[in-house]
Inverse folding.
């Protein structure tokens, strides 16, 4: 398990670095994003906002964030994609913890401040939060603690987005985002990060405000995007399945659960994206070749148990 940084060795080290990859994000969205990061309750010197300009062509990112304060700095680099931008930001981050925020999203400051309370009080390796809509503010909020990321993965459905996690920087740096993967890059990083993480606090707080729109990578409905989503999702499942073979014991069991759940989601999404029996049967055939179908008969969740049983009947 990682230990807190020695403050005497890092007298001016921020508590938290926000890494914000940007590629031609609409200026008003970017400003809204940065404003939300500046609104959370962090004292001067505790906050670093690292805006990674991934070769924007239509937007002058430095001009957009000009005058937003000394905590905000811009890294300009050649366009290589969001994974490369996140890796670059993670490498340059100076905070004890890191939080990835997409440039067209924002934070709910009131909810996020409660996540920070847990971070300050417990100093875990990871503090987990939710997207707005995954839970509601009028429900009784609870937090749960897990001694390791492996324990969390064994007992829960993992949220794939890297934006759901505040991570101790030295833990985050143990895993790089896969360069060249357009979709599901978060899934690879998140699973590997959790395998390496020590103590985790799951706050269940809806502190992350996700904005889906036509220009976002996940918002597009073009055929080209659908084909790429299927290819990247299958490649991620195959990669994590391969990684399972390098592990043993509880680590392997934890990742096997994640692979099975991703496979369930993949089968459903292929149908949802294509509505093509032929496409579905082709992808299921590829899963079968890798020993990933039929799905393992496990009680990971009610949804998984039902889905795995039904697909044995309906698909083949």
């Amino acid at each position: 398990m990682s230990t807190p940084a020695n403050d005497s060795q890092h007298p001016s080290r921020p508590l938290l670095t926000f890494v914000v990859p940007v590629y031609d994000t609409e200026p008003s969205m970017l400003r809204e994003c940065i404003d939300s990061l500046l609104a959370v309750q962090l004292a001067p010197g505790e906050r670093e906002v690292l805006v990674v300009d991934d070769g924007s062509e239509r937007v002058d990112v430095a001009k957009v964030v000009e005058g937003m304060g000394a905590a905000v700095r811009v890294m300009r680099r050649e366009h290589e994609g969001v994974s490369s931008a996140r890796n670059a930001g993670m490498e340059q981050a100076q905070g004890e913890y890191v939080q990835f925020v997409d440039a067209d999203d924002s934070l709910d400051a009131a909810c996020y401040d409660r996540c920070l309370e847990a971070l300050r009080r417990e100093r875990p390796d990871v503090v987990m939060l939710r997207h707005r809509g995954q839970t509601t503010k009028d429900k009784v909020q609870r937090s749960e603690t897990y001694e390791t990321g492996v324990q969390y993965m064994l007992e829960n459905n993992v949220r794939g987005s890297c934006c759901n996690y505040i991570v101790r920087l030295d833990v985050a740096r143990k895993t790089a985002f896969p360069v060249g993967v357009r979709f599901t890059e978060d899934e690879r990083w998140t699973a590997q990060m959790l395998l390496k993480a020590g103590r985790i606090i799951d706050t269940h707080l809806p502190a992350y405000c996700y904005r889906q729109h036509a220009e976002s990578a996940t918002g597009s409905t073009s055929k080209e995007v659908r084909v790429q989503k299927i290819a990247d999702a299958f490649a991620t499942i195959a990669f994590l399945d391969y990684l399972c073979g390098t592990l043993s014991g509880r680590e392997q069991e934890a990742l096997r659960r994640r692979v099975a759940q991703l496979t369930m989601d993949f089968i459903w999404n292929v149908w949802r994206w294509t509505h093509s029996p032929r496409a579905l049967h082709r992808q299921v055939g590829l899963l079968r070749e890798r020993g990933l179908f039929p799905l393992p008969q496990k009680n990971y969740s009610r949804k998984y148990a039902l889905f795995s049983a039904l697909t044995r009947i309906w698909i083949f």
About this structure: The longest helix spans residues 249-274.
